[in-house]
Amino acid sequence: MGALALNAQVDGVGIGTTTPNSTLDINGNVAFKVVTLDDGVTTTIDDGYYINIQPISDGFTFFLPKPDLVPGRTYILRNIAPSGSNQAVIDVIDAGNVFYASNSQGSSATINLTASGENKTIYIYSDGTSWNYGVFGYN
Description:
The chain is mostly beta strands. 0% of the residues lie in helices and 38% in strands. It contains no helices and twelve strands.
């Protein structure tokens, strides 16, 4: 394991730089925790950043935490079931609104994460009141 060069400035913290230009300035690669969930192990999304969702049965529900408990939390969710097979449902614990990024007027309580197509991979974040998501548009 290499040495960590950490430099604190009045306006920010730099990793790999002595002159941070932001509150957190990382001059190097960043890795995020990857977690795989399937309906045989756990159904709560509460750990990791890049979440592989592997529904063993069609329409199985995975739950996000209440958005007011995790403001600013962000996930990338990807259905890794084989193309054309099981769909996963993403819901919010104790209900809550889920907004599609381009639709500020309507909301739903769930997201269908398909095994192929546009809704295979999404990003989702909590604004402290609701979950907001968009699609990457690739499979």
